[in-house]
Amino acid sequence: MPEFVEIFEVGPRDGLQNEARAIPVAEKIALVDCLSRAGFHRIEVASFVSPKWVPQMAGSAEVLAGITRAPHLRYTALTPNMRGFEDALAAGADEVAVFGSASEGFSRANINATISESLQRFAPVVAAARAAGLPVRGYISCVTDCPYDGMVAPSAVARVAAALRDMGCGEISLGDTLGQATPEQIDAMLTAVLEEVTPDRLAGHYHDTSGRALDNIEVSLGRGLRIFDAAVGGLGGCPYAPGAKGNVATEAVQARLQALGYDTGIDAAVLAEAAVMARAMRAQA
Ligand code: HMG
Ligand code: MG
Prior knowledge:
globular, two-stranded antiparallel ribbon, eight-stranded parallel beta sheet, binds magnesium ion, alpha/beta, binds 3-hydroxy-3-methylglutaryl-coenzyme A
């Protein structure tokens, strides 16, 4: 039996949050509904953030209300604070995520808080989510490089990972937000983080600006990670990381994992259909 590796689809959130065009809710729902037939276990579809900061995610509650839910599939949402968590819960998110940074510059630019302030803000969100029975993911951005502060020390990532673990995050997603990390940098970062968190609780979230995301996934596989975030059609970027291109494309990750002998449970034909939709959404932007 081939070993299972989960691809966590983040296109409808990480992808679409960065498109210049205001994408109608109906288009987002159509993309999620197509992805729901592809065999994912989790799809990130929403973000309950300030619409002044990220206007593209303003229709998140409508997206959650409008999709046709597939059984056993968890629809997840970003929740930066208690207000976001309460809105996500009311909208029916199955899992939520807090999102911090390993660098002070990005933390300030993205969520208007120092790392320490952000952790204080996340603690009640994680506690409330757990009390409501929802799994919580903790993202860490800028795990190797920051657009504001430059190189990020592996020990800084490990510190934030340990704090998120202690807070109760069941899973920690390690973001190469700029997409410039080399496999050597990812390996060094993982060496530090793995001293704090076991590999089954880590996910690799790699953007593909420099075309090295698949190599970074391979390095991470070698270190025991079995969850990778990807965006259909390579959608995305981050509004607070200038120059960052999209997440690694789900189709590319699926093909590479299959070639390496892993089982992803993804139906490549349905995924290709979703990629056509995603690229058409981007082309109009
Ligand atoms: P702030 O300005 O410090 O907070 O923003 P505030 O409490 O003063 O609120 C400002 C305004 O936002 C107020 O409205 C609040 O009501 C409203 P006003 O009184 O001015 O009319 N507000 C909200 N509205 C809706 N939902 C909410 C909410 N909270 C406050 N939950 C805040 C702090 C965190 C809210 C803001 O900085 C923010 O929304 N940031 C989000 C930035 C973002 O979404 N970035 C992209 C996602 S992260 C990412 O992509 C990286 C990742 O993919 C991993 C990787 O690649 O590295 C995850
Ligand atoms: Mg991202």
